[in-house]
């Protein structure tokens, strides 16, 4: 029995073998904690200033274009430049933007337009940084430990995602928005100090210079890999159609439970945290594509239930459940990406990955806000879940290579394993 319980615990091998992975993990944990404070505070401030569900949903709209443009070009930069430098300087930029939010919040009459401007600029910086963060992991972690690294990175995100939103609800309600922004700024100072200590990670010799031609080369490779294409499409559909974050402040009001807003924001990462804390089983699963599809469909069903029930504690329970299924999908998507994409294309493919898991939620905010304004808040939630389940089913039928993917036999995974074995032969 004890052995079975231990087998469920996260695999800490990436922590043990890589100093840089430990630095990135700790820096990411600290930054994520602060960023979730702003993630809650920003829509709350927009709601207070405008009282409009459409205005809150529009935050996602202003983040969308920078995310697409800089995500694609950021992937090319990650292949052509030193990944450590990109990570460091984009982290500095995020800290400066957080300082701008703090200054605006401290004004006698805070302005609306800086919220949209900072959201757009922050989206651009995230889009440049994330391909570098994603593509550096296969360099600093041995190939066989990449699924464990994906689980640990998910754990890092969810720890901040559980604690910070709940804390943010209290901070915003009792201390004010300024304290949330100030705490986020402090976390960026610490994460920058940690990023300074990372080893350089220069471009590979085969990497193309950043250009739209090199971006197109990455897109052609992604299109040729239908199993990868399936992971992007499934995640984009799930997030666009079923992500309810934009309407949570209004859902809490409708349930006469304003106190629950922080818990609602924390519910999704709580479910993700429960999965990552018991993620040892994921290393023993080989058909990753099937798990991506199944988990995305169950995410949609959880959102349907959250939109239909009328008791706030049941809403929270189904959001927790949905967060868990979303994390399962994310773990297996990351494993497929990290174990099959060549190093010289990692940055550009990471930029495409960024679009699949970031553009979806941003568009989802717009979708949720617009549908809530057109119908109702609750209909926006449950109808989005129904559409998600239908879309995932159609994609599973249309992309058979996703459903048949097996890491033991996939030609790209086999080639990557062989290449890493030659580059890092076992010690005698």
Structural description of this entry:
The protein has 428 residues and is mainly alpha-helical. It has 18 helices and no strands. Helix 4 (53-80) runs antiparallel to helix 15 (346-374). The protein starts with a helix and ends in a 5-residue tail after the last helix.
Salient structural properties:
mainly alpha; 18 helices; 428 residues
DSSP strand content = under 5%
Q: How big is the Rg?
A: 21 Å
Count, helices: 18
Tell me the total number of β-strands: 0
- Average the pLDDT over all residues and give the rounded result: 84
Provide a compact summary of the structure.
The protein is an all-alpha fold. The protein has helices at 2-8, 13-17, 19-50, 53-80, 83-105, 113-140, 146-174, 177-196, 212-224, 226-242, 248-254, 261-277, 288-308, 312-340, 346-374, 377-398, 400-404, 411-423.
Task: Please describe the topology of this protein.
Elements: H1 2-8, H2 13-17, H3 19-50, H4 53-80, H5 83-105, H6 113-140, H7 146-174, H8 177-196, H9 212-224, H10 226-242, H11 248-254, H12 261-277, H13 288-308, H14 312-340, H15 346-374, H16 377-398, H17 400-404, H18 411-423
């Amino acid at each position: 029995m004890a052995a079975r319980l231990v087998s469920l615990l996260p695999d800490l091998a990436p922590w043990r073998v890589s100093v840089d992975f430990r630095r990135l993990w700790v820096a990411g944990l600290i930054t994520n904690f602060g960023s979730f404070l702003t993630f809650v505070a920003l829509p709350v401030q927009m709601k207070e200033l405008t009282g409009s569900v459409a205005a809150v949903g529009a935050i996602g709209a202003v983040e969308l274009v920078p995310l697409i443009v800089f995500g694609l070009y950021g992937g090319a930069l990650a292949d052509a430049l030193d990944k450590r430098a990109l990570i460091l300087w984009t982290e500095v930029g995020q800290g400066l933007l957080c300082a701008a939010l703090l200054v605006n919040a401290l004004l006698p009459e805070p302005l609306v337009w800086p919220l949209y401007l900072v959201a757009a600029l922050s989206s651009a910086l995230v889009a440049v940084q994330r391909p570098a963060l994603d593509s550096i992991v296969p360099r600093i972690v041995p190939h066989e430990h990449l699924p464990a690294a994906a689980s640990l990175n998910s754990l890092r995100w969810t720890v901040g995602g559980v604690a910070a939103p709940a804390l943010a609800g209290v901070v915003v309600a009792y201390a004010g928005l300024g304290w949330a922004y100030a705490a986020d700024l402090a976390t960026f100072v610490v994460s920058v100090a940690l990023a300074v200590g990372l080893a350089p990670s220069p471009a590979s010799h085969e990497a193309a210079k950043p250009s739209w031609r090199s971006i197109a080369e990455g897109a052609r490779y992604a299109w040729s890999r239908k199993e990868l294409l399936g992971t992007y499409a499934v995640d984009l559909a799930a997030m666009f159609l079923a992500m309810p974050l934009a309407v949570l402040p209004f859902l809490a009001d409708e349930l006469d439970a304003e106190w629950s807003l922080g818990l609602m924001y924390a519910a999704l990462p709580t479910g993700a945290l429960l999965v990552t804390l018991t993620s040892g089983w994921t290393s023993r699963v080989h058909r990753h594509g099937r798990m991506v599809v199944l988990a995305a469909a169950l995410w949609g069903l959880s959102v349907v239930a959250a939109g239909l029930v009328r008791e706030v504690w049941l809403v929270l329970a189904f959001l927790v459940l949905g967060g868990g299924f979303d994390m399962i999908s994310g773990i297996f998507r990351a494993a497929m990406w990290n174990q099959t994409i060549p190093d010289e294309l990692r940055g550009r493919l990471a930029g495409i990955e960024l679009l699949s898991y970031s553009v979806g939620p941003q568009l989802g905010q717009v979708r949720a806000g617009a549908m809530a304004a057109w119908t109702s808040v609750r209909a926006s939630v449950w109808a989005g879940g129904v559409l998600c389940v239908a879309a995932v089913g159609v994609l599973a039928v249309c992309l058979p290579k996703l459903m048949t993917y097996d890491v033991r036999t996939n030609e790209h995974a086999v080639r990557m394993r062989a290449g890493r074995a030659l580059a890092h032969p076992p010690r005698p």
